[in-house]
Amino acid sequence: MLSHSTEDWLSHALGTGDLLFHATISPVHELPATMLQEEPGLFVALVFVLLVGFAIMGAGAKRFQTGRLIKNTPPEKVRSVAIGRTELRGKARDAGVVFDQPFTEGKCLYFSYSVQQEVERKVKDDDGKTKTERNWETISSQTLAAPFYLEDETGKILVVANAGANFQISGDNKFSKTFSGRIPGTYRKTLDTSVDISDAICESIEWEPHNLATRIESKLPFGSIPGTANSTKPRDSGSPNQPTYSSSARGRVRRRRIRQTVLPVDADVYVYGAARQRKDPMGSNEQRLIIQGDDDTGRFIVSDKGEDEIAQKYTRWGLGFVLLGLVVSAATFGFLADGMLTLIV
């Protein structure tokens, strides 16, 4: 939890960044011509780094704002949900589609797995000397989410988790194990690959991209873009793939590792997103509304954690990004100012 003084400092920091932006960008056309003539490449690079610093600050401010919204907005009951941003807490019930957990027993509504192997190989360095390199290589992986119902004591509502939700899963629902040889048969499960998430989406349901990453990812043939707020590729259909447990490698395979993250069926779940109407809205919230990403904040969070823990994570990371962006921007501004003075003299 951040104190009032910390929040005031953050607001002041953001204001300082804004002043730096106007002080640096606005007078570019007034810079001495000698600076651009003497070091044009360096000048362009510094301006680019300066803009990157501002972008980091902006991303941090957005994260910080999301954390404050989560903290200050109590979860609603399903019966009371209105169109727009909402937070809900309840049980994750299946909507007609469930997956096998990749390596452990049980069913789930979301999974992310990987199979990796550590490969050892001999290579030569720049001096011609032979050295040993060891690297982990991913030979099989997949992430998939199904629409599910969030149910509380007042009713249930469909969460379109396949629309690019960011799953934040606790350690209780994560599994990892490393083996010195082959992966034992106990973990070599045969998954049900016949299920498809489209079976849980009726014709009255249409989801819309809630941020730029969702818009881009929904058009791409591969998975989600690394570094975005989406942990799953936005998609209307998809089935589990059978994991590949071994693969040939250029070198000696020393160890193999399996990892999985799941949201089990009937688990406690927290959802941050926005309620919107179906095509033909009528009846109760269960019949006329769905939950998807929030356009205003660009967030769609599904988690088995408490909202306080999630809020703290966003505020802390947000503050960290703002500090980093401020340091980068200030240092670059100082470098630019020093270069201007040097060239003028």
Short summary:
Helix content is about 30%, strand content about 30%.
What coarse outline follows from CA principal-axis ratios? flat
Intertermini distance: 49 Å
Biggest sheet strand order reads 1-5-6-11-10
- Uncertain segments: 9-29, 31-35, 222-230
Beta percentage is 25-35%
Assign the structural class, choosing from mainly alpha, mainly beta, alpha/beta, alpha+beta, or little secondary structure: alpha+beta
What is the element string, with H for helices and E for strands? HHHEEEEEEEEHEEHEEH
The rounded Rg comes to 25 Å
Total strands = 12
Largest sheet: 5 strands, mixed, barrel
What's the average pLDDT? Answer: 79
Provide structural commentary.
By secondary structure, this protein is an alpha+beta fold. The protein folds into two domains: 95 residues; 224 residues, no CATH class. Helices cover 32% and strands 28% of the residues. It contains six helices and twelve strands. The radius of gyration is 25 Å and the shape is flat. About 10% of the residues have low confidence.
Provide key terms for this protein.
32% helix, five-stranded mixed barrel, alpha+beta, 345 residues, flat
